[in-house]
Each structure stands twice: as structure tokens, then as C-alpha cells.
Amino acid sequence: MLGGVIIGFGVASMHYIGMAAMKMPDTVRYNNAVVVLSVLIAVVAGTAALWAALRLTTVWSTLVASLIMGVAVSGMHYTGIAAMHVYGSQNPGMLAGMSGGVSAQAFLLPLIIGISLLAFALTAIISLSPTEAEMREDAALMAHLSARSRQGPVGAHRAGHLGEEPRDPGAGG
């Protein structure tokens, strides 16, 4: 439950911080009830996605969990946008101050390269990570090897005592 609350507030804060970072000459106000509803959507859907991801173990359940998380992000975003009211500026001179900034290419190229490298690294880490079945198999092998090493060297069990030479059945002793 705590994880869902953290994810929900993370998604909501990402949205509202991004909205607050936008510069425009207009006035932006929010309907507080709809803002709370958008945060609740993010928390509930984030909790459901975490539950599905942690409780269900098939590929299909992981796919369902990712779809639920997508609903959390998009549902929260569109509800947050519905909470926003923009009031136009009465001063036409303010629009002149909005020109300038960087080009789309100067912004998008580093963003695309960064996201691509991150996606590649995450894909490599996930694909090279052992599955749960492989970890269980390794643990069983280690337990088997540990049990064999406690038995001593091969053939020592025939001598009767560790370190004692095996007796020759032909020697009358």
C-alpha cells in the first residue's frame, strides 16, 4: 500500500511540477476537488499495478500490470488537465516576451539519445538477470555441492574412517 501511495504521489507531482514549469502570459488556476481526484486515481492505479506486478508471476500478469500503470499515468494526467482553467491575458504586449528559446532539434536530440541509452541499459540488465527458476536451480545445485563436500573425498566412506587406508581383502589381517 505504501508503495502505491509513493508511486501515485510521484506521478502526480511529476505532472503538477511540469505544469508549474510552463511559462505563459496567461493565468492558470486549478479546481482543487478535481486535483485531489487526479491524485487518488494515480494512487489507486499505482497500488493496483504494484499488486499485480508483485503477486502474479506470469508474463501476462506483468503485461496487465504495465497496462494498469499506463492507466495510472494517463488517467491522472487527463484528470489533472481537466482540473486546470486558463484565463487569457489582457495585455497583448506580454506575447512578445514569449518568443525565443531553443529549437526543437536542440532539445529533442539529447532527450532521444538519453532515453534510448537508458532503455538499452535497462533492457540489458533485465534480459541478463536470472529468472526465479534459474535462481532456485542454482540454490539446489549449491546445496547439493555443499552436501557432497561434507561427505569427504570419493572413496573415503569405504575405509571406515577418514584418513584410514582401505584394507586389502586378500591380506589376512
What is the strand and helix layout of this fold?
Blueprint: H1 2-21, E1 27-30, H2 32-55, H3 59-82, E2 84-87, H4 104-128, H5 132-150
Antiparallel strand pairs: 1-2
Characterise this structure.
The chain is 65% helix and 5% strand. With 173 residues, the protein is mostly helical. It folds into 2 domains: 1-95; 102-156. The chain has a two-stranded antiparallel ribbon. Helix 1 (2-21) packs across helix 2.
Order of helices and strands: HEHHEHH
Indicate the structural class: mainly alpha
The global form is elongated
Strand order of the largest sheet: 1-2
How many helices? The count is: 5
**What proportion of the residues is helical, as a percent range?**
55-70%
Number of domains: 2
Would you tell me the overall average pLDDT? 79
Give a short account of the largest sheet.
2 strands, antiparallel
The value of Rg in angstroms is 31 Å
Counted beta strands: 2
Low-confidence stretches: none
How much β-strand is present in the residues? under 5%
What oligomeric state do these chains adopt? single chain
**Ends apart, CA distance between termini:** 75 Å
